[in-house]
Amino acid sequence: LCAWLAVAAPAAMAADEPDAPDDAQAPFVDLLVNGLILESDAQFHLGDYRKTTRATLSASALDPAYIDGYDSSAWLIWSMGYDANAVRVLKCGIQANPKSAYLRHALGTHYLTTKRHREAMPWFSRALAIEPSVMSYMSLGHCYKALRQPRMAVRMYTNALRLDPGNGMIKANLESMHRRMGTMSEGFTQQARYLSPLRYYQLKLFAETGRMPTPQETRLAIARAQSDDPLYLTAKQKHLAEDAARPPMTAKTTAVATNVT
User: Fold this and answer.
1) DSSP-assigned letter for residue 99
2) Fewer beta carbons within 10 angstroms: which end of the chain, N or C?
3) b/e burial code for range 17-34 (CB count within 10 A of at least 16 → b)
4) Does 2 have pLDDT greater than 50?
C-alpha cells in the first residue's frame, strides 16, 4: 500500500495542468472511473479496506476532481494505522485540486481528530480563505478552545453564527465559552445578542455571584434592575418579571382571597 501511494498518487499530479483527455478517450476514462468506484464500494462491504483504498485512489488518479476518493481513502488508511500515509493522500488531493476548500477542511479535520490542534488550524484558515463555511469556523473554534484561547474561540463561533443564525450547536458552544470566561463585559453584551433576555441575565448573575440563579430569581432580578439597566423584554417576560417581584402569597392571604371569591 505504501509503495502504491508513493507511485500512483504523485503520478496523477506530474503536471500542474494535465492535458485533457481526447474526446474519444473521455467515455472510456469515465467508464473506468465509475467501475473503480463500484469496485471500491464492493470491497468496502466485504471488509477488505486495502483493496478499497487501491480502487478509490486509482479512480482519483484517473480523475483528480473526484475529491471524495482522497478523503474517504485517507480515513480508511488512518483507521488501519497509517497516519502519515493518510496525511500524504490528503496533501496529494490538495495539490491536484488547488482551489478545493473541502480537502483543506478534511486535512484540518484529520489533525483535529488526532488532537493536533496547532497543525489543524492553518488548514481550516486556508479553507476559510477559499470558501467561508460554518464547519470550518466551528472546527477552528474547537482548536482555539482546546488551546485555551477562549476569546479567539468565541470569535470563530460568532463568525459561524453569522452564517447560520439558527444553529443550536453554535449557540451551545458560545454559551459554554462565555460561562468558561466568566465575564459579562461590554464586549460580551455585543456577542450575546442571540440569547433571550432571561437567559442573558441569568448568565450575567452567574458571572457576578458564581451561582446559577433559578429562572424565578432571575426574573426578580430583572424586575429590580429595570430602572437602572433597561433590558428588552417581551410582554410575556414582563408579566413574569412582575409576578416574581410580588411578595409570595401566604396562607392567610390565600384564605382571604378564597372568601372574597
Assistant:
1) T
2) C
3) eeeeeeeeeeeeeeeebe
4) no
Short-list 21, 33, 98, CA closest to 69: 33
Tens-place pLDDT, residues 203-225: 777 766 777 788 788 777 777 76
Which residue in this structure is represented by grid cell 497516519? Answer: 83
Question: Which of residues 92 and 176 earns the better pLDDT score?
Answer: 92
Distance CA 27, CA 203 (A): 62
Q: What are phi and psi of 183, to 5 degrees?
A: -125, 140
The answer to whether residue 11 scores a pLDDT higher than 60 is: no
Find the radius of gyration of the CA atoms of the chain: 28
Cell numbers placing 3: 509503495
The single-letter code of the amino acid at 222 is: I
Q: Could you give the C-alpha distances from 25 to 20, 21, 28, 32, 62, in angstroms and in order?
A: 10, 6, 5, 11, 12
pLDDT of residue 3: 41
Whether the Cβ atoms of residue 100 and residue 93 lie closer than 8 Å to each other: yes
Q: CA-to-CA distance for 89 and 46, rounded, in angstroms? A: 23
8-state DSSP, 182: T
> How much is the pLDDT for 225?
65
* CA distance from start to end of the chain: 86
Inter-residue contact 65 to 30 (CB < 8 Å): no
Q: Determine phi and psi for 214, rounding to 5 degrees.
A: -75, 160
Q: How far apart are CA 204 and CA 37, in angstroms?
A: 55
